[in-house]
Amino acid sequence: MNTSASNSTLRVIIGMLVCMFSFLALVLTADDIGWTFDEVFYFLSSELIIEWFTALLNALPQDSADHVLSQNVIDTYWLWDIEHNCHPPLYKIFSAATLFVFRDLLGNFCAYRLAPMLLASILITGLYMFLSRRYGILSGICAGACLLLLPRFFGHAHFGVTETPLMTFWFLSYIAFWNGRQSLSWSFLCAVFMGCALAIKFTAILVPIPLIVWALLFRDKPAIRTLGLGLVIAPLVAWMFNPGWWYDPVPKIIGFIQASLSRETTVPIATYFWGKTYSFSPPWHYAPVMAALTTPVTTLFLFIAGLYTLFSRRHDRVRATLFFLPIPFMLLITMLPGTPIHDGVRQFIYIFPFMAYFCGLGFHQCCTAVNRYLSSRGRGFFNTCLCLLCILYPLTQVLKIHPYELSYYNKIIGGIQGAYRRGMEVTYWFDAINKPAINALNSLPPDAVISIWPMPRNYFEFLQEKGSLRKDLRFVATDIAVTGGKKGVHFSFNGIQPHYLLLLSRFGSFNRFYWSVYRHSIPVYSQGINGIPLVMLYRWKDIKIY
Q: Kind of pairing, strands 271-273 and 488-494?
């Protein structure tokens, strides 16, 4: 075997190990991170998808599939609760598949989350394979590790929601686009990947825009073929994977787009940023600031070092520009007035694989700069040590913050403690309701009534239905009137009077009353990280406000 073939074989073997390690790291921590609010609705939708496919498979041998394929049945199963379940269904199809196959072995929650964890592993492996072919195995490993061990990505990679699947197909589309300049099959694959992205979330309409800018910038004629295929094939793939669009697709797609563009009036989500609450859209600098403050400092340094490639040799510059353009493009989108940006980095998390790509380039740049002064043996030693250093630091950050990865802030702002002091959101998606918090709720007296803030009562009812929470517990969303006098504060409840208040530290949702409870009352149970409470349980009779 020649040297080139041997290196290629080694690269593939290591790629398989990268995929396996990434998958195991996620699977072994699958149940550590709490169930997110959105997963409740997506899980229920996946169960309906399983029912529909089961009915279809049972009907096909009997030649009686017409009813299952009718518009009424399809709309019932595929367009269920469109207000909370508003995205195209491909990611739910993936989770439905793993839920159906593995639920008896792994349980409902882990089986459902298996799909995004597998997709995250494929994304990391694709990043490694693409970089290692040009810049070496260690550069690929470094980039893959920087992505996996980026705490906010590591947390998101567990959740059965839209972000990880869309990230995966977005980045794979760019790999296929680059390779498609010399291969028709890769061009076709790029179109399929873009279609899969479009079948996951409306945001995917942004995927081809940086590709068009790149093709015009470098006047790359072969890229036009790939873009042309994408414009034809991608919408067909998206339509095929969304049975809810099979009938009357035009009005449904228009309604879907209108719903996505009118969230300021339909689903306004507040954001707490630098000590101030923004009812819908935070300041223009929110996204770049949050991206910088939630990335480990070594990863941030490698990313900045990798940007040098934009000014290097033409071939490297052309390739680097392709993978750089999505970063400023996505950040620019977030800066537009009225753009729905909330929940930490969730709305622009798609830049992370592209940032990790430049981490690999930054590692390569550092090695190149130092290796000219070293012997052959010294180069190998230095490169390996540098790669380990670039992996170990973000690994320690994940280990320290786990299982609260979505609350991670880096050393620039002083970690989560510094972020808290400076008025940043420390939690938002109910992922902090993990096993210890659930155990605390299950230890409450029989028939306890618990008011909750924020108020997703159906979230807790779902956990009860799936056996995580005791069914005798009652979760209520209560209107409260507060009056004061010489004998102290009196609470009047519109509806049932609760025994407890469960408060999640989502500061953007706090009004004056909940801020006062948070600052002045002593909880009977508190859970958090590094002294910052994320989940608190109070007895109503002990609550004090000022």
A: unpaired
* Contact yes or no for 416/529 (Cβ under 8 A): yes
Cα 213 from chain centroid (whole Å):
26
d(CA 94, CA 338): 32
Q: What is the pTM for the complete model shown? A: 0.95
Partners of 271 in the beta sheet?
278
**DSSP code for 456:** -
Work out the burial of residue 221: count CB atoms within 10 Å of its CB; fewer than 13 is exposed, 13-18 middle, 19 or more buried.
Answer: exposed
Q: What is the rounded average pLDDT of the residues 166-171?
A: 98
Q: How does pLDDT run across 338-385, given as a tens digit for each residue?
A: 788 889 999 999 999 999 999 999 999 999 999 999 888 899 999 999
Report the phi/psi class of residue 343: left, alpha or beta, with left for phi > 0 and alpha for psi in -120 to 50: left
The Cα-based distances of 213 to 86, 178, 198, 421 in angstroms read: 30, 14, 19, 41
Enclosing H/E stretch for 483 = strand 479-485
488/508 Cα distance (integer angstroms): 28
Q: CA angle 364-366-369, nearest 5°?
A: 105
User: Starting from the edge strand earliest in sequence, which strands make up the sheet with 525-529, in order?
Assistant: 474-476, 449-453, 500-504, 532-539, 525-529
Does residue 356 contact residue 139 with C-beta atoms inside 8 Å?
A: no
Asked if 126 and 22 count as a contact pair (C-beta separation under 8 A), the reply is no
Helix (H) or strand (E) holding 474: strand 474-476
Decide if 54 contacts 177 (C-beta within 8 A).
no
> In the predicted model, what is the mean pLDDT of residues 466-495?
83
**Other C-beta atoms lying within 10 Å of the C-beta of residue 37:** 21
Name the β-bridge partners of 492.
481
Query: In terms of Cα–Cα distance, which of 130, 138, 126, 132 is closest to 167?
Result: 126
**The pLDDT of residue 88 is above 70:** yes
Taking only the tens place, the pLDDT of each residue in 268-316 is 789 999 999 998 889 999 999 999 999 999 999 999 999 999 988 877 8
Tell me how far CA of residue 209 lies from CA of 135, 185, 203, 205, in angstroms: 27, 21, 12, 8
Angle between helix axes 314-324 and 208-218 (nearest 10 degrees) is 150
R_g over Cα of the chain = 25
- Tens of pLDDT, residue by residue over 457-478, are 899 999 999 999 999 999 998 8
- pLDDT, position 487: 62
Euclidean distance between CA atoms 316 and 415, whole angstroms: 35
**In contact, 158 and 30? CB cutoff 8 Å:** yes
| Residues 441/473, Cβ–Cβ less than 8 Å | yes
Span 246-265, average pLDDT? 76
Of 188, 422, 194, 178, which is closest to residue 324 (Cα–Cα)?
178
pLDDT level of residue 319 (50, 70, 90 thresholds): very high
179, two tokens: 């390779």
Separation between Cα atoms, residue 32 and residue 335, nearest integer Å: 34
User: What does the pLDDT read at residue 478?
Assistant: 80
Average per-residue pLDDT for the chain: 93
